[in-house]
């Protein structure tokens, strides 16, 4: 059963508390109690049977939303886990890519240095043939 607690009157005199209680229940908010939502709905329905259809629709909507929340949360956790698993190989690939790029640049410099003497000899052979 839902218990109500009026926060507007907390710590005030009994007279003022009585006046505030008479205003409306809209100023009151439910205090969370241990127990299942279904049990609270059952108690509500025992008190007012005309609320059966709307209460069941609301309960059905609640369970639908809860299932969606659970599924989305599980998917989020799975994706976060997958992202963490991929992060390490991505970092490894990025580091090795940088190393390979540096090695390729060094090899290109070596080949260019070797190409110059070969080009000079080739140009000399062509000049002597002419």
Strand content: under 5%
Residue share in helix: over 70%
For the biggest sheet, the summary is: 2 strands, antiparallel
Number of helices: 3
Number of domains: 2
Structure in words:
- With 130 residues, this protein is mainly alpha-helical.
- The protein has two domains: 1-51, no CATH class; 61-122.
- It is 76% helix and 5% strand.
- It has a two-stranded antiparallel ribbon.
- It is rod-shaped and about 115 Å long.
- The relative contact order is 0.05.
How would you briefly describe this protein structure?
This protein is mainly alpha-helical. It has three helices and two strands; from the N terminus they run βαβαα.
Write the layout of secondary structure elements.
Elements: E1 3-5, H1 14-23, E2 29-31, H2 37-47, H3 52-129
Antiparallel strand pairs: 1-2
Helix pairs in contact: 2-3
Biased composition (Basic residues): 1-10
Region (Disordered): 1-20
Keywords:
rod-shaped, 130 residues, two-stranded antiparallel sheet, mainly alpha, single chain
């Amino acid at each position: 059963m839902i218990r109500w607690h009026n926060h507007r009157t907390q710590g005030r005199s009994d007279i003022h508390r009585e006046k505030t209680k008479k205003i409306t229940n809209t100023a009151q908010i439910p205090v969370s109690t241990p127990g299942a939502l279904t049990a609270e709905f059952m108690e509500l329905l025992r008190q007012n049977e005309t609320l059966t259809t709307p209460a069941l629709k609301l309960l059905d909507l609640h369970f639908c939303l809860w299932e969606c929340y659970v599924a989305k949360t599980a998917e989020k956790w799975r994706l976060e886990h997958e992202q963490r698993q991929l992060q390490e190989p991505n970092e490894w690939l990025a580091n090795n890519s940088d190393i390979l790029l540096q090695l390729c640049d060094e090899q290109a410099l070596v080949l260019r240095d070797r190409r110059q003497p070969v080009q000079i000899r080739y140009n000399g052979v062509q000049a002597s043939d002419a």
